[in-house]
Amino acid sequence: MNECASEFEGLESVDAGSIIGRRIVWLKETRSTNDDVRRAAEADEPEGLVIIADVQNAGRGRMSRTWTSPPGMDILFSVLLRPKASDLPKMPLLSGLAVARTLDKFTDVPITLKWPNDVRAENRKISGSLVESGNSDLGYYAVLGTGVNVNQDASDHPEIAQIATSLRTLNGKTVSRRDVMRILLREMNNIYVNPENMSRLVSDWSARLETIGQEIDVRWGDELIHGVAEGVDDTGRLLLRDNE
Ligand code: BTN
Q1: CA–CA gap between residue 153 and residue 149 (Å, rounded)
Q2: pTM for this structure?
Q3: How far apart, in whole angstroms, are the C-alpha atoms of residue 105 and residue 1?
Q4: What CA–CA distance (Å, rounded) separates 88 from 237?
Q5: CA proximity to 178, closest of 2, 3, 5
Q6: Whose CA is nearest to atom 16 of ligand 1?
Q7: Which of 33, 70, 102, 229 lies at a C-alpha separation of 20 to 30 Å from 214?
């Protein structure tokens, strides 16, 4: 791995006593930070590792989509966690809620969530997470890979201008990726290490769910399911009411 000094230098650890961010690795370029963290997990790395990259050559989104971001503009990172098995399904919600709370501190525009893992502003996507899990000698692990559009200008890319936004687009000025990252790791840690916050994660996340009461289509494998979004259950699964 080509570790680098970058704009993020100085953010080697977040706060004493935190789990998330107790080891942070910055890469100039990689294929996918999710792959890097997965490899570390399989090699028995303790939870809390964060790998962040300036550029990903093979960044992945959900449903086999690619995740692209211009070099040095946005935040692209993955976190290794080893949660108890019953908390594994909640991991996408953890990322989304922490990102939403972080973005609240950088913009007055309301930040909403869309199941399972989109963070949105002004009806456009500003962040997404890809959570992958596995089982190594140390037990279950989850890789929480998150992309946050910080300084990219979505209007430069007509193919995504209607569906994506960034902090800079919302605020009209460049934002420090390091400041966003520092707060984001704290917000994630604050949820993860605190059992009370973990137990209210689903309800805190649901309070920002923008599709409650709306008719939506959800892809389930190869199937497209239509229904009215009623909320999420205790494990973070979407509850859809079938009208037929
Ligand atoms: C989605 O909305 O479809 C999920 C996007 C997840 C992108 C992030 S960027 C960092 C990490 N590495 C990847 O290859 N993907 C995730």
Answers
A1: 9
A2: 0.90
A3: 33
A4: 12
A5: 5
A6: 145
A7: 102
Q: Which atom of ligand 1 is nearest to the CA of 63?
A: 3
Beta carbon of 130 within 6 Å of any ligand 1 atom: yes
Q: Is the CB of 78 under 6 A from ligand 1?
A: yes
Ligand 1 atom at shortest distance from the alpha carbon of 33: 12
- Spatial distance between the Cα atoms of 151 and 165, rounded to a whole number of angstroms: 9
| pLDDT tens-digit profile, the chain (244 residues) | 555 546 776 666 666 678 999 999 999 999 999 999 999 999 999 999 999 999 999 999 998 889 989 888 999 999 999 999 889 989 999 999 999 999 999 999 999 999 888 999 999 999 999 999 999 999 999 999 999 999 998 777 777 778 999 999 999 999 999 999 999 999 999 999 999 999 999 999 999 988 777 788 877 777 788 888 887 887 777 888 886 6
Does the CB atom of residue 92 touch ligand 1 within 6 A? no
At residue 2, the pLDDT reads: 52
Say how many Å lie between the CA of residue 244 and the centre of ligand 1: 35
Residue-level length of the chain: 244
Question: Is any ligand 1 atom within 6 A of the Cβ of residue 125?
Answer: no
Protein residue with its CA nearest to atom 15 in ligand 1: 60
- Counting from 1 in the atom list of ligand 1, the atom nearest the Cα of 147 is 9
Region of 96 (left: φ > 0; alpha: ψ -120 to 50; beta: rest) is: alpha
One-letter amino acid for residue 190 of the chain = N
